[in-house]
Write a structure and sequence with these properties.
Two copies of one chain form a homodimer.
Chain A: H1 2-5, H2 23-35, H3 38-45, H4 50-59, H5 62-72, H6 78-83, H7 86-95, H8 98-107, H9 110-117, H10 122-131, H11 134-144, H12 151-154, E1 161-163, H13 168-177, E2 187-191, E3 197-202, H14 203-208, E4 226-227, H15 232-242, E5 246-250, E6 256-261, H16 262-280, H17 293-320, H18 322-327, H19 330-359, H20 364-397, H21 400-430, H22 435-463
Parallel strand pairs in A: 1-2, 4-5
Antiparallel strand pairs in A: 2-3, 5-6
Helix pairs in contact in A: 2-3, 9-11, 15-16, 16-22, 17-22, 19-20, 19-21, 19-22, 20-21, 21-22
Family (chains A, B): Belongs to the SLC41A transporter family.
Protein name (chains A, B): Magnesium transporter MgtE
Pfam family, one (chains A, B): CBS
Chain lengths: 464, 464
């Protein structure tokens, strides 16, 4: 931490504003929208990257987005369309003239078409599929047959393959004569006569080798295939763990059905992180900064509702001790401190556990050791802050009994926080649930209830 | 959310355990360590990927790791060494025989050597640099001259370049005759006579084109250079935003000094997320699941210390109203509910804001609109849960005055939560600080203090 705080942003010369459109260009775009001038708008957007245009569309408020699309919908191509966030893609599609949409879809890789149509209703989906030629349509339909969030949905069917007995020279001649090749490809995948993927050769190796070398002699050690039924999170993990650039996807019979490239794996990694962080905070995991008020309320109310239930549980613990509080109001003053420290310590442990599970650094092989560590840390932190709070209470209220009680309650609650923070996510994970999803609510309920119970209970037993 | 909860892990056929070493292999490894049998250990580890071996080493408890290294240190190569987490790398290096370390370092790409030595002390660093040949040493020293966390530190100096007036045939002949080429490369970077990067050609395009085509006619539209002084987080953003696979790095005079590939950008993206999530939870951002008890206590105590200060601030607000509580103990029962709901709502807003800033979805162009949305959402949620709590309070205590007071306090506190949750991270960002770093503490302090103040203050004014 000390190390990171030394990062001085000023020393870096290229900052956020050097990427994407600059302020002047944004002002021109704004003016063009205001003036309803579609020629000026097109001219301003022309030099922009599709990803930046998509971001611009996402950031517009809904009514202004409609105005924008009235001026610009005819210019939206496949690249822009695949960059637009799912949350507003349907709105955009609706405003695109049918022939423009059809043209855009025809330009897209099969994996991008799958991503586009999988969330549409049947009639919109059929309309888009109808725009494709038969081969592309079959590829998209094959992908859609795999479960949502599977490798089969992520892959593109456009694959460059060669028999393993070919030479480098043969392969290069084949690539030069082939009319159609994917936009981006990094490997030639080796296949046997039954279309089983048996290895791959990087293009760099292909280019650097003598023409008479056999492809099978250039195959990479790092070769591994991905099942079309693998979960997309596992796909992202494999790419990140093994530094893959692209990986062949195979069906149940080990036959090659497609390929996944690292840029898609990177996007999934990004999404999975996003989900974790939003779930930990109790926000719907599809929230974006561009959602409307109603969408936002809809995402957050369920979590606040769950929280009110846990808060009521904590309140009913307090209610048991009403007469103790009436006798010694200092209890009411101090009790939130015990609960709050427990909540914080629990969140710390929980976050480390959820991250560890997500990155697979926390696994069966070290779970027992991690639990033991968290319990020890909980006891040590409990002792430290127990002493601190006992000291503060002594200075504030001059009551040694009260000081002892809060010190003990702090130790109990930080121990409970550690246990809840590590055991609840481990249990949810074991049950096949996402540990990020509901852990926070459970952990805080534990630390609130036990915090109040330990402090008020001990006070009643010792002081009154 | 509804959509995601339907994800049933059972439908995916390849799960976590299909990647990395299986349980049987792990048992063999454990047995070999116990028996002190280095041949058996080598045999078990032989089929494993370097990244999995590194993970295995990380997961061992410190004393067992020493035993492991006594048996295995001679087998550690450059690949394993570059996969090992910074937190334990120094321990590993210390146990490696000097000649094994020297050999490992000579195998590594320059960017991995930079990553290895940048955290070592001067004498260890010198020792490692001495093992390199002069050319590699110069490359590493050039990288180390750039600031920490800059693109210059991330890049590798091994670059494949060609003059833009070359033809495809010339380039392929050059690549075939070149003795040394990087392990992985995906583009040929075009340079002018003064070594300015002017474009790049993907290897796929090179292979698919006629031999007499000029390289400059094959250059990609997506070409963009990265300043060696750019921050690594910005580098990850650019790769993710523009789907880059590799990007040339240039110095202040726009001269080509290296190249960054997407696998490094993906690792940075992963680290930045990790930092955000750990900072939001108030855990030192270098925590790992494998830290010792003392390291863990050291990371967490500062944050718990900050929390105790904010909890004391909240307690002193309660202390002002001691006599009100003594008269009406129900206030003590209900007050944590108001504070807890505020804390939750504040965390929700905060998390969405921190994520939005990290992904650059929240920027100057939509900040005002987002603030307005959060305030509106805060008021609506306040109204919803104000009514809910008023109803519950009425049922529980049968006191319409108390019910009104808690309803109003809830509205006030959820409004404050929204304001604090969005304005505090925006302010920290504006000041050049990381909004994930301290926002949580500030936001909770606001919602605790205002929660107690609004509820107890209103109660005193209205009820007593």
């Amino acid at each position: 931490m000390a190390d990171d705080s030394q990062r001085n942003e000023a020393q870096f010369e290229q900052d956020e504003d050097d990427f994407g459109p600059n302020a002047e260009l944004l002002a021109q775009i704004d003016a063009a929208i205001d003036a309803g001038d579609s020629d000026a708008l097109n001219a301003s957007l022309e030099p922009m990257h599709a990803a930046d245009i998509a971001d611009l569309i996402e950031r517009l408020a809904a009514p202004r987005r409609r105005t924008f699309l009235e001026l610009y919908a005819r210019q939206i191509d496949g690249e822009i369309l695949s960059e637009i966030d799912e949350s507003i893609r349907e709105d955009v599609i609706e405003q695109m003239p049918r022939e423009v949409l059809a043209e855009a879809v025809r330009e897209m890789d099969s994996d991008d078409v799958v991503d586009l149509v999988e969330d549409l209703d049947q009639s919109d989906r059929d309309q888009i599929l109808a725009a494709l030629d038969a081969g592309d349509r079959a590829a998209v339909q094959q992908s859609l047959a795999y479960p949502e969030y599977s490798a089969g949905r992520l892959m593109q069917s456009e694959v460059v393959t060669a028999p393993e007995h070919w030479t480098v020279g043969q392969t290069i001649r084949f690539l030069q004569s082939e009319e159609w090749l994917p936009e981006q490809f990094y490997h030639v995948i080796l296949v046997d006569p039954r279309r089983h993927a048996t290895g791959y050769v990087t293009l760099g190796r292909l280019l650097a080798s003598r023409h008479d070398t056999m492809l099978r002699d250039l195959a990479e050690d790092s070769f591994r295939t991905i099942s079309a039924y693998a979960e997309e999170g596992d796909v992202a993990y494999v790419f990140n763990q093994y530094h893959l650039i692209s990986a062949p996807v195979v069906d149940r019979h080990d036959r090659l059905v497609g390929v996944i490239t690292i840029d898609d794996a990177m996007a999934i990694l990004d999404e999975e992180h996003e989900e974790d962080i939003l779930r930990l905070a109790g926000v719907g995991d599809e929230s974006t900064i561009n959602d409307t008020v109603l969408q936002t309320v809809g995402q957050r109310v369920p979590w606040l509702g769950a929280n009110i239930v846990t808060a009521l549980a904590a309140a009913s613990v307090i209610a048991i001790f009403e007469s103790a509080i009436a006798q010694l109001v200092a209890l009411a003053v101090l009790m939130p401190i015990v609960a709050s420290m427990g909540g914080n310590a629990g969140t710390q442990t929980l976050t480390v556990a959820v991250r560890g599970l997500a990155t697979r650094d926390l696994s069966r092989s070290n779970a027992v050791r991690v639990v033991r560590r968290e319990v020890t840390v909980g006891l040590i932190n409990g002792a430290i802050f127990g002493v601190v709070m006992a000291g503060i209470t002594m200075l504030w209220f001059g009551d040694p009994g009260l000081a002892t009680v809060i010190g003990l309650a702090m130790i109990v609650n930080l121990l409970v926080a550690a246990l809840a923070g590590i055991l609840i996510p481990l249990a949810l994970n074991k049950l096949g649930a996402d540990p990020a999803l509901a852990s926070g609510t459970f952990v805080t309920m534990m630390t609130d209830v036990i915090g109040f119970l330990a402090f008020l209970g001990l006070a009643t037993a010792v002081l009154l």
